[in-house]
Specification:
21% of the residues lie in helices and 40% in strands. It is of the alpha+beta class. It has two domains: 2-51, 2,3-Dihydroxybiphenyl 1,2-Dioxygenase, domain 1; 59-115, 2,3-Dihydroxybiphenyl 1,2-Dioxygenase, domain 1, CATH 3.10.180.10. A hairpin with a 4-residue loop joins strand 3 (37-40) and strand 4.
């Protein structure tokens, strides 16, 4: 159900080492070396580390089977009065079929619902 996890860290180098060491037995390795350091198993790319102050400001995403489900979740959240962050949209800078909508939980964490399938 979780699509990916992004964790902020004060010491990026130490965190990269920690996760590289401990995720290796699961088949994970660092596969993205940009501002966000991404770890995956060759099929999934779902754990990211970024420099920053650790806090409750954790961003996580739930995978949806299709874009209609992303839209439905967003609409339900809006109708229920939950705090909206960004409406569902394509994010082609991530990949051509990346379609996501964002809300904020009561602790201000960014909660994403994403579909990777073509429309």
């Amino acid at each position: 159900m979780i699509d990916h996890l992004e964790l902020r860290t004060r010491d990026l180098a130490a965190s990269i080492c920690f996760y590289a060491d401990l995720l290796a037995p699961l088949g994970y390795a660092q596969r993205v070396d940009g501002p966000a350091k991404g770890f995956g198993d060759g099929v999934s790319l779902d754990v990211f580390l970024v420099e920053g102050e650790p806090s409750a400001n954790v961003h996580f995403a739930f995978r949806a089977p299709d874009r209609a489900t992303v839209d439905r979740i967003y609409a339900l959240g809006r109708e229920a009065g939950h705090r909206i962050d960004r409406a569902p949209a394509l994010a082609p800078h991530i990949h051509p079929n990346y379609y996501a909508g964002y809300l904020r939980d009561p602790d201000d964490r960014l909660v994403e619902f994403v579909c990777h399938e073509p429309g």
